[in-house]
Amino acid sequence: MHSTVRTRRRSVPLAAAAAVAALALTSACSGSSDQSVPGAPAAAHKKAKTSALDKLIEREAPASASLMPPGSTAAEIKKNGTLVVGGTQTAALFSQLDPTTGKVEGFDAAMSRLLAKYIIGEPKTKLVNVTAATREALLKNHSVDTVFATYTITPERSKVVNFAGPYYVDGLGIQLREDQTGIASLTDLKGKTVITQSGSTAAAVVKKHVPSAKIQLFDTNTECLQALRQGRGDAYVLDQGVLAGNASTNPDVKVLSTAYEEQPYGIGIPLDRPDFKKFVNEWLKKIEADGTWATVWKNTIGTQVPGPVPAPPTLD
Amino acid sequence: MHVITSHWGVLGRGLLVSLELSAWTFLFAAAGGLLLAVCRISPVRPLRLFAALYVSAVRSVPLLVLLTLFVFGLPEIGLVYSLFWTVVSAMALYWAAFFGETVRAGVRSVPPGQTEAARALGLTFRQVLRHVIVPQALRCTVQPLASLLIAVVLNSSLAAAVGVTQELTGQTVLLDQQYAQPLVTFGAAAACYVLLTLAIGRAAAVLERRLAVLR
């Protein structure tokens, strides 16, 4: 059905690898179109990736007791036996529920499991669904221990929650319907209706660059994507990694290659738990140094974003 | 507190959109509801059946489900129009069922003897409705209809969940996201809604007194 080669789906800071990108994407496309066939190569491929991550999590050594003194947040979580993570089930490549396994998979999901293994000794996490609107509140009232949810670090948010990291840097991308033409950059959105997620940083950025754009807000990525596909807007602006994930599961949308405004993702931690922020930052340093971070990237985001593994962002 | 004092405009505009949304919804719901009520008491059996089916079907679906169905479902069959009017049409169709039942109850409160008397005088079905039943029925439905209007206003907040974030609750959510002070922002929104419903209650009381017939 969608046999045309789509070279525009390449993503983020790796535009340099354009040639490789075209090649890699061609194969990615044919892969996704085969997914309905049981036992297709794509499915087998995915399984291999998942088990690579499982092995990685198995290898992650628990933190030594000296790092978790009694009374610290980490020790408390260990005592509880599960890491309560605020996340989502609908962000492809980052944290998406795989209905065939019942497991949440992606970059954020793998990172949260690794952290749970590091603290508790077992990758036991409990996912609490959050939206861009509820993250701060859930951290504030301690409904969740931490938030892994493509959570951009901003000065306003830093006033109400702690951020460990950044552990990933993304840029804002533009998503269009496959058949759309005439929009090639942010400035082409003048006077157009732009869909984005309420509570995300994208709305402010679009308003800053193109004040004449009309902003249409929806609560979740799924709703935004659906609204774009149904023609309720001319473009969908959000973090490019998320948009690439959308394009990987929906052949009728594409992502423009240019990205705008760096979006550093942080791990959300309650404001009154500064010790846990330090603990998580130390852990991030460790997994970035020993190559764990790179392996996670390669097996999640790297399956859609071509090019070599980027260097992890430097911690704040 | 300064979140509110420096954002009166935001809340005010939100309130205005909420009012607009509720007003259009109530207007269309009234038109549809009256029609439904007429169908339900008409001597034509298929009309009665249709109205009864409509009411029991629409009333059984949660409003949020209906809204989602309209906003994300209609485009699937090629029907895309502005989000505001999509929401208004869904809400109007929903509340029309309630409006119709309220009016029907009012009509039922008019003693059948009056209808018989009017018929005996040679009035047609339309005339019986216009001159005998509807004036009396509306009088005793003022309070229930005011309650309905209050429900319409309060439930207009559901529009924010399907993308009409310009209305009061939507604006409050956005303010809360920016400043993370739910107690203050939602408190202010709640106060706005309370003021609205109190005003509707007062208006209904005044209207009822005006319409009252001394017997």
Shape of chain A: globular
- Taking the alpha carbons of the first and last residues of chain A, their distance comes to 46 Å
Q: Tell me the quaternary state.
A: heterodimer
Name the structural class of chain A: alpha/beta
Report the total helices of chain B.
9
Q: Please describe the biggest sheet of chain B, giving its number of strands, its sense, and whether it closes into a barrel.
A: none
Work out the count of structural domains of chain B.
1
* CATH class category of chain B: Mainly Alpha
The overall pLDDT average of chain A reads 80
* β-strand number of chain B: 0
Walk me through the structure.
The complex is a heterodimer of chains A (about 325) and B (about 220). By secondary structure, chain A is α/β, with parallel strands linked by helices. Chain A has two domains: about 15-45 and about 170-260, 3-Layer(aba) Sandwich (D-Maltodextrin-Binding Protein, domain 2), CATH 3.40.190; about 50-170 and about 265-305, Periplasmic binding protein-like II (D-Maltodextrin-Binding Protein, domain 2, 3-Layer(aba) Sandwich). Chain A has helices spanning about 20-35, 40-60, 75-80, 105-120, 135-140, 155-160, 200-210, 220-230, 240-250, 275-290, 290-300, and strands spanning about 85, 90, 95-100, 105, 125-130, 145, 160-175, 195, 215-220, 235-240, 255, 260-270. In chain A, helix 2 (about 40-60) runs parallel beside helix 4 and helix 2 (about 40-60) runs antiparallel to helix 11. Residues about 1-45 of chain A have low confidence and may be disordered. With about 220 residues, chain B is mainly α. The longest helix of chain B is centred in the N-terminal third of the chain and has 34 residues, at about 10-40. The interface of A and B includes residues 133, 160, 199, 219 and 227 of A.
